[in-house]
Each structure stands twice: as structure tokens, then as C-alpha cells.
Amino acid sequence: MLFSHLISTVQPPQGHVAVGDTLQNMSVKSQPQKHSLKTLAAAVLGVTALAVLGVFVYYQNRQLSLLEARITSVEGRTEREKSRLRRNLDDLDADVERLVKRHIDQHLDTRQVPSQDAVEVLVKQLLASETQLLQSYCDNSTIVCHPGVKGERGDSGDKGAVGQVGLQGLQGLKGNPGAPGYNGPPGPKGEIGNPGATGAKGEPGTAGQTGLAGPKGDKGDRGDIGPLGPSGPPGPKGDIGGYGSGNAPLPQDCCLRLSAPKEIGSHSVTIHATVGDNVLLGCKESGYPPPTIQWIPSLSLLGTTRYVQSKDGLTLMGAQLSDNGKLFTCKVTNMFGSSDTLYMLDISEPINVSVTPTALNFTEGSPGDITLTCSFSGYPLPTVQWIHEKKNGQTVLVNANIDNSKQGVSILTVPSPTTSDGGNYVCRATTSKGVRTEASASLTIFVCDTPVHVDLHLLGAWLSAVFLSMSTVGGVVVVSVMCPSNRERPEDKTITTGTTVTLHCDVDSDPPATVTWIYPHNDPHPRFNVVRNPDSSITITSADNENEGVYTCIARNDYGVAQTKARLQIVSNVTVTLTPKSTSLTTTPVVALDCKSTGDPAPSTTWSKLDASIDKTDPRYINVGGNLVITGVTPATQDKDAGVYICMGKNNISTTSEKAIVYKEVPAVDCTSTFQICTGPIGVACGATCPAGCASKPGTLFGFRDYTANSQLCLAAIQSGAVTDAGGLVTWSMRDGSYLSFQGVTQNGITSTATGPIHAAASVFI
Questions:
Q1: Based on the number of CB atoms within 10 Å of its own CB, is 72 exposed (0-12), middle (13-18) or buried (19 or more)?
Q2: Which DSSP letter does residue 520 get?
Q3: Range 466-476 burial, b when 16+ CB lie within 10 A, else e
Q4: Residue 498 burial (CB count, 10 A)
Q5: Integer CA distances (angstroms), 50 to 21, 42, 45, 57, in order
Q6: CA 72, chain centre distance (Å)
Q7: Residue 167: which of 128, 119, 135 has the closest Cα?
Q8: Where are the beta strands (DSSP E) in 194-336?
Q9: Contacts for 567 with CB less than 8 Å, ≥ 6 apart
Q10: pLDDT at 34 over 80
């Protein structure tokens, strides 16, 4: 293409005429003229033109040859330049590869791997540099034409514009780290500072509590025997001893059992109790021979009104706050030694907390403040906190507007209450021992009966459909809206477990109010046995303890909120468990009757005796936590101690009782023995073992379960079901029969006869 282009450029200049054209023109011009001179001139002119044309053609051919040679030379030089450029590009690729590799190795050595973006920037810089070099070759016209004769130096051109800043060079390699320097010599030791001034002597501390008594000192040497003194007066007669075992010889292991009193528990014991409790300071005999027990202070100083000594220890009846901190020592001694136990009483008083008033309603914007008073008592005296339980469930500790200047009273003031102040206010009392009791009051804030001023032309007839009443004041309608109010409030109820109950909440409001319920423990969702009725009441089916608590009915419309609360208390009947059901006085010197009474509310427990009374002044009868303990039982006390004991549990819901018989054993009986074999006062209880086969032996029998004293006791036991004809133990108590009715029945194959009231009767214990 380059050669064709060059050929096309070698054309005759415009205005020149080709040789053929010239001859033709000459021939045309010579035809009209016949004159010879003109012909000769034309011939000379034609020869000259041919000569000139030949010279011109020769010159043109020579120029074409030179041009072809030059083109061939240029093409060769172009190929050589292309080869050199290829070698330069190959060398450039190798240089780029080495440079990139070195750059990567350098970063790898320094644990810095270059990112892909960094490598791309490096390659782009190298390509731009090589592209600039290639462009300089392509723009060089010397590779196309040979340079001509150097022309004269032209005038200096205008200074060109400042060129663009070149590309930034590659970052050099990081040098190797230098060797660490040597450690300098240690500095000189500083001088010792001046001692500080001696502080002021502190005040002496308070005296500590008196320590426990130290151990008893070693026994001193025995002194010389003194002179025999005169005989003393005879001592008082001792108690009647128990039944002996005849003339049995002294056991051979008697001497092996000799020992000093043993320690029982710790040397020092703290007894925690509440005001009104009966407190037992346990101290039992140990060692052989049986030791003596001495209390310090002695019973002569303590008196027997509130202190009762028994085999189990010393009982303080009805603890009082004045007993707090008292010390008692039990000293057990025999001929081989002694053992001491120190008791300290820690008496506390239950916490009582109340808040007044318990419920308040307040209309927002009304003048005045709300005052809540928390009264509390107990020992140790508790500290109190006020807690605000808001309607949204948030709980906030109240720290402001509280007056605690008076002991046992905390007064909380809520100034100018707003809707955010509504909710429950809890007064929480806590003792130093961590015992906590609380009481609360509810504050309801209403936003009601607020006149709303509305322009007549804005609302028109729409007012009559929304508001309850309207009056015109100065061309403006004054609208009185009606907030929700409870027409029928839910009432506090107390029901027994398993009962079905309905709580009502009827509301008057305009516009109509939406009624919601909040269930116990601030739960918005009812339990499975609670159903909401179409009239907004709720029904609780087969209520249990989980349904107990406060139920809140909330009525809300666009102009206010009204709420009311009712407490539902779930109670249960009293149950009493008494063990043992029967106990013989012959086998034990101590009788313990364990009575457990349960119910909701917690029941009280009392003891009584059938057709007799319990001697509450006798210190042998101890009531501990509802249990009855009879101590010091001997043959001489059996008529007083025997009987049918009744444990009764009672709360404001129900009363339940259980019986246990404590009996004395009578001599052997036969089928004809009557109840008269049991001797003693009315109310005494006896027990005997009936032989087998009494059902086939007829006898006298009056009544059923309650029998006359002359009835045969074994026949009565079979008829009442206490034993079978195979015999066994039967127990009964002697009663006042003057108000009993003795019926005649046939039961278990035994027939009895009816009779009228008599003085003494017997009741078989089943």
C-alpha cells in the first residue's frame, strides 16, 4: 500500500500536457496552413518537444527507481525496527516479571503480601512507559524519508506548555534492620527519703462482748479430814420409786458402764425464736451413775411461772422481747466429772407493715397532693423502701418526697399527680436478717370531665353523635364528655378450693369503653380455667391457689380511664393428722402426741380432753409448736394422765379435730369382764387384751359404741369392730353417761339392748 501510494503521488502537475496531446494539437494547428515555413517551424517545435519529453521521461524513470530503492530500504529498516521493538517488549516482559517477583518476595520477607490492586498499578505504570517509547518510534518521520540537507536554523518557537507530571517510580527495597545497640550502664541509686510524721493515736475501740466461760480448772488436792460434825436433821421423803425387778442381782456389767457425763452438741448454742414461742433448751442426762442437772440461773431464781424443767431440758413458755440476750447454763454432773452447755436467746418480733389509704382516685389537674403513710413494726426494727409499680409494668425505686423522721412511720408525698404517677406504691420493710414484708396502695389518675371548646361551623351535626351533652357559651359550644365509670365493681371474694366464681365489671361511659382485665401477678393473659364472658365479666372454674390474687378491671375510652380491683382469696379446709393414735402409759415415762394441722389460712391448734380437762398449770404438760408432751409419767399420775386427747385445728373457714387415746393397762380380763374393771375418775382411759372365743358366750350388753359400765367389754369390742372374735387389744374411756342415749343394735353377730341415761358409761375407741 505504501508503494501504491508513492506511485500515485508521482503524477504530472496540473497545467502540463502529455506528449500525445501536444502532437495532436500541433497537427490540428498545422492543417489550415500550407505555408512551408510554418511547416518547418512546426517540425522543429515537434522535435524539440519530443526531446524534452524524452528527457522528462528519463528523469521520471530514474526518480521512480530511486523511489523504489528508497521504499525497499525503508521497508527493511521498518522490519529491523519491528524486530528491535519485539526484543524490547520481550525484555520488558522479563523485566516486569523480575520486578514483580522481587516486589512480591520483598513483601513476603516482611510478611506483607501485596494486594491485587498494587500489582495492577505497577503493571500499568510499566506499560505506559513502554507505550510512550513505542509512540516515539511511530511518530519519527525519519524512518520513512532520508533526511535532506540541513536547513537554516529557524527562529525560536514559543515556549511549550509545562508537561504533565511523570508517573511515580517504584518503591525501593527495604533495607535490612540494624544490629541492636548495647545496654547503657545502670543509673545511680536514689537517696533514701525522709520518714513521714507519726500519725495521731486513734481512740480506743468499744469493748467487745463478754466471752464464753473458760473451761473448769484442775481439781485441787484433797484436804485433811475434818472433825466429825453433829448429825443433821432428816431430809424430806423422796418420791416413790418405780417398780423394781424383785431380788435380781446387780448386773455384772454395772462397773463397765461407769462414765462421766458426755457432751451433747456444742458448748455454746444460740436459740432463735419469735415472740410468743415456747422455747426448749435441750439438756438430757448422760453418763453413769445418772448425773444431776443444774441450771444457772437456778429455778429458784427463775421461778416456775414461765420456766418448766423436764427430762428433755428447760422450757421457756411464751418468749418475750425482754428475754432477748439472756444466758442459761446447763451443768450435768456425776462423781466422775461434769459437762456445761451455754444457751443464748435471740428473740425477734414479726414484722407488721400497713399502708393507708389502700386506694386513691385523683383527677389530673385538680389542686392538691397525695399522701401515703406506711406504718411498720418489728424487732429488730426494719428499714423501708418505697417502690412505684407503674401501669406499663415498669418498677421504679422512689427516693424523693419521703419523710422518715418518725420511728416506725414513713410518709410518701406525690405532688400534683399526673397520669404517669398512677399505679401501685409498695412499702417494703426488710430486717437486718433479710426478712421482708410489704404492703401497697393503688393510685388511679383520671382525665375526665374536661370541657372541650369546638367551633360550631367546623363540626356541625357530628357533635350530637359523639358527645354526651352540649351548651353554647359566647357562640362557642362547650362539650362535656363522660369518662368511664364502674357501675358494678368486682368485689373481694373468699372461696374454697374447687369453687366456681364470677367477677363482674359493668361500666357506664360515652363513647362506649373497652374493658380489659389484668390478672394476678400483672399477667394480661388468663389461666386455662378462666373464661371471659360477653358482658365483660370473667368466670373462674374449679379455682385453685394459682387463681388467688388481685384482679383489675380497666375501662378505657377516648376521654379517660377507670379501673377497679378485687382480691380473690382461695382458702382450703383444715386437715389434722395426729400420731400416735394410742399410747400405753405403762411402757414409757414420756408421752409425745404429734399433731399437724394444715389449711389456708394457716389454722390455730388447741388441745382438749374428752369428758375431762387438761391441767395447764401442771408443768409436766408442755405444748411445743402444737404438739403435746406429757413428762414425768408414774403409776401415781396415770389416772390424771390417761384419757382421750383431742387436737383441733381451726381457721375462719373450717374446724377439724382428731383423737388419740392415752390409756393405762388393766389386769388380765376374760369374756365376762365388764367396763367396771377400769377404775378412776370420769375421763380416764383404759386398755385390756380380750381372749379369743368371746362371741359365742352370751352376756349383758347395753348400747352401741357407747355402752353402760356393766356391759361386757369384750362383747362390746367385737360388736363395735375394735377387735374380732380372735381377741386383741381394746381401749375405752369412762364418760358421763347422763346425757348419752344407749341404742340396741345387732352388729358383727352381737346383739345389744337399749337403755336410758346412766351415771357412768364407756366409749370404745375405734
A1: exposed
A2: G
A3: ebeeeeeeeee
A4: 11
A5: 12, 12, 9, 10
A6: 101
A7: 128
A8: 268-274, 279-282, 292-296, 307-310, 313-316, 327-334
A9: 492, 493, 549, 550, 551
A10: no
Instruction: Specify the amino acid at residue 556.
Output: R
Per-residue cell: 552:
383489675
Cell numbers of 116, please? 491485587
> How far apart, in Å, do the first and last CA atoms of the chain sit?
141
- Condensed to tens digits (0 to 9), the pLDDT of residues 206-249 reads 555 555 555 666 666 666 666 666 666 666 666 555 444 444 45
Q: How many Cα atoms sit within 13 Å of 671 on the Cβ side?
A: 15
pTM above 0.70, yes or no: no
Residues 136-173 have pLDDT tens digits of 555 554 444 445 667 777 777 777 777 666 666 566 66
Q: Which three cell numbers stand for residue 125?
A: 505504570
680 pLDDT more than 50: yes
The residue type of 668 is A
Closest residue by Cα to residue 352 from 377, 323, 327: 377
Strand 549-557 versus strand 369-379 pairing type: unpaired
The sign one gets for the Cα dihedral 593, 594, 600, 605 is: positive
Q: Which residues are CB-neighbours of 176 under 8 A, at least 6 positions away?
A: none
pLDDT at 207: 56
Residues shown for the chain = 766
Which CA distances in Å does 599 have to 190, 276, 576, 595, 650? Answer: 81, 21, 9, 14, 9
Judging by beta carbons within 10 Å of its beta carbon (0-12, 13-18, 19+), is residue 101 exposed, middle or buried?
exposed
Q: Is the peptide bond prior to 289 cis by the omega test (within 30 degrees of 0)?
A: yes
Q: Please check whether residue 340 is in contact with residue 329, taking contact to mean a CB–CB distance below 8 angstroms.
A: yes
Q: How many CB atoms lie within 10 A of CB 378?
A: 18
Cell readout for 703 is 348400747
- Give the per-residue SS3 of 390-451: CCCCCEEEECCCEECCCCCEEEEEEECCCHHHCEEEEEEEECCCCCEEEEEEEEEEECCCCC
**Helices and strands per DSSP (H, E), number in the chain:** 9, 41
Q: Is the previous residue joined to 350 through a cis bond, with omega within 30 degrees of 0?
A: no
How large a percentage of the chain has pLDDT more than 90? Answer: 25
Nearest partner of 345 among 270, 277, 295, judged by Cα: 270
Contact between 92 and 126 (Cβ < 8 Å): yes
Residue 746 near residue 753, CB atoms below 8 Å: no
Residues 673, 688: contact at Cβ < 8 Å?
yes
Cell numbers that stand for 319 in this block: 418468749
Q: Which residue reads 415456747 in cell numbers?
A: 278
Q: Running DSSP on this structure, what letter comes out for residue 60?
A: H
At 536, phi and psi to the nearest 5? 75, 0
Angstrom CA distances, 438 to 355, 426, 432, 443, stand at: 9, 7, 15, 17
* Contact assessment for residue 536 and residue 499, using Cβ atoms and an 8 Å cutoff: no
The set of cell numbers assigned to 34 is: 500550407
Distance CA 244, CA 621 (A): 26
pLDDT band per the 50, 70, 90 thresholds, residue 555: confident
Q: Name residue, grid cell 385523683.
A: 362
* Amino acid in position 749: G
Peptide bond into 601 cis (omega under 30): yes
Name the more confident of 349 and 714: 714
